C-alpha cells in the first residue's frame, strides 16, 4: 500500500491543485460562451509542444507562441458570414492535425504521442508539485484580479462598457489565463481532454446553482470529486489517468442532469 501511495499521492495532489483553477476558469468559459475557443486553444497546445521540441525551446514558450497565433489568426479570419463556432471547430481540428504531424514527423517524440493527447498524470512526482502549485497560485491570483470585470462582461456587457471596462483588454487577459491553464494541464489530461476538465465541472454546477459564487463552489466540489475518483479508478481499471478523470466528470454530469430533470418533474407534479 505504501508503494502504491508513493506513485498515486503526487498525481492525486497535482490533480486536486489543478482543479482549484479549472473550476472557476470553467465557469467563466461558460458565462462568456467561449467553450469552443477553449477547445481550440487546448488542441493548440499539442502544436506548441511539437514546435518547442523541434526548436529545442521550453514547452511553455511553444504553447505561448501558438496561443498568440490562435488569437491573432481568429482576429484576421473573423467574417460575419461565418458562424463563430464553426470557425473555431475548423481551427481546433487544424491545430490538432498540425500538432500531430509536427510531433510525429519532425521530432523524436512518436512514442510519447499518447501521453500528449491523453495526459500522464502518474508520471508526476513530489518534485513537480511545488512548480505546479506556484503556477496555479499565479493563475488564481490573476483570475481573482480580473474576476469582477469578467463577470460584469459576461452578465451585462453594455453596462460594463459604461463603467469603463475595456472588453478587448479583458478578453486578452482571459485568453492569457486560459492559455496558461492549458499549458499546465497538458500533462494531467492531454490536449484532447483539457476542455472536458474545464467545462464539465462548471456545466454540472450550473444545474444546481442560483448565483455565480454558488456555481463556482459546486464546480470546485465536482472537480475534486472527479479527480479523486478518476485517479483511483485509473489504477483500478488500468487505463489512462486523464481519460478516467474526464470520464468520471462526464458521468457525474449526466447523473446530475438526470436527477435534476427528475426533481423538476416531481416539483411540477406536486404543484
From TrEMBL:
Localization terms from the record: Cell membrane
Pfam families xref list: ABC-3
UniProt keyword terms in alphabetical order: Cell membrane, Ion transport, Membrane, Transmembrane, Transmembrane helix, Transport, Zinc, Zinc transport
Presence of the UniProt keyword Ion transport in the record: yes
Keyword flag Cell membrane: yes
Gene3D superfamilies: ABC transporter involved in vitamin B12 uptake, BtuC
Homology family: Belongs to the ABC-3 integral membrane protein family.
Record's protein name: High-affinity zinc uptake system membrane protein ZnuB
Amino acid at each position: 500500500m505504501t508503494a502504491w501511495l508513493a506513485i498515486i499521492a503526487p498525481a492525486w495532489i497535482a490533480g486536486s491543485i489543478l482543479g482549484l483553477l479549472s473550476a472557476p476558469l470553467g465557469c467563466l468559459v461558460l458565462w462568456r460562451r467561449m467553450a469552443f475557443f477553449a477547445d481550440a486553444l487546448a488542441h493548440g497546445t499539442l502544436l506548441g509542444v511539437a514546435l518547442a521540441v523541434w526548436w529545442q525551446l521550453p514547452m511553455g514558450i511553444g504553447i505561448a507562441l501558438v496561443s498568440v497565433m490562435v488569437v491573432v489568426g481568429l482576429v484576421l479570419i473573423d467574417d460575419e458570414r461565418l458562424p463563430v463556432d464553426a470557425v473555431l471547430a475548423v481551427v481546433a481540428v487544424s491545430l490538432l492535425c498540425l500538432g500531430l504531424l509536427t510531433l510525429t514527423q519532425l521530432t523524436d517524440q512518436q512514442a510519447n504521442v499518447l501521453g500528449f493527447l491523453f495526459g500522464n498524470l502518474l508520471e508526476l512526482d513530489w518534485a513537480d508539485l511545488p512548480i505546479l502549485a506556484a503556477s496555479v497560485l499565479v493563475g488564481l491570483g490573476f483570475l481573482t484580479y480580473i474576476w469582477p470585470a469578467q463577470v460584469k462582461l459576461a452578465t451585462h456587457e453594455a453596462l460594463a462598457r459604461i463603467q469603463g471596462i475595456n472588453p478587448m483588454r479583458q478578453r486578452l487577459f482571459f485568453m492569457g489565463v486560459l492559455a496558461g491553464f492549458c499549458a499546465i494541464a497538458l500533462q494531467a489530461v492531454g490536449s484532447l481532454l483539457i476542455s472536458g476538465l474545464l467545462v464539465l465541472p462548471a456545466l454540472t454546477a450550473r444545474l444546481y446553482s442560483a448565483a455565480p459564487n454558488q456555481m463556482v463552489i459546486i464546480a470546485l466540489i465536482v472537480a475534486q470529486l472527479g479527480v479523486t475518483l478518476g485517479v483511483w479508478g485509473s489504477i483500478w481499471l488500468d487505463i489512462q489517468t486523464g481519460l478516467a478523470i474526464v470520464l468520471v466528470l462526464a458521468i457525474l454530469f449526466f447523473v446530475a442532469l438526470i436527477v435534476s430533470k427528475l426533481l423538476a418533474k416531481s416539483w411540477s407534479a406536486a404543484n
